[in-house]
Amino acid sequence: MADSSFDIVSKIDRQEADNALNQARKEVEQRYDFKGTDASIEWSGESILIKANSEERAKAVLDVFQTKLIKRGISLKSLDSGEPTASGREYRIVSTLKEGISSEDAKKISKMIRDEGPKSVKSQIQGDELRVQSKSRDDLQEVQRMLKAADLDVDLQFVNYR
Prior knowledge:
Elements: E1 4-9, H1 14-30, E2 40-44, E3 47-52, H2 55-71, E4 79-81, E5 85-87, E6 90-97, H3 103-116, E7 122-126, E8 129-134, H4 137-149, E9 157-159
Antiparallel strand pairs: 1-8, 1-9, 2-3, 3-6, 4-6, 5-6, 7-8
């Protein structure tokens, strides 16, 4: 019998992220408490730039964006936001959306599977994803349950289950 396997990845639906940003921009433009504060949110290359005239307003815009991401099904673990920095008269927050599993996180997940998972399961790192193999599909499902229960700082999806 052939081995069963699945891949562990960390991906973001770019269209959903773009929709969340556009919704947040509309809400910031229309909300009464943001009137006259020059608050804005926009793409700046691959990162997201939030501007406002005070640190609290910048954090409030970030909060609006996080709410829109959650409603669109994107985990906040994939959003990496910095602290507000003063730039002239305005405050800026630069945020990025993380995709892929870093090599340190991949090693940590692989070690967790080796130590806590069923003994028949093997994992190997392939670039920014992890392939998990076993003869038993039940063991693979056990690994998925274990990783979902673990509090990792990476948003994980399980794909190519065969």
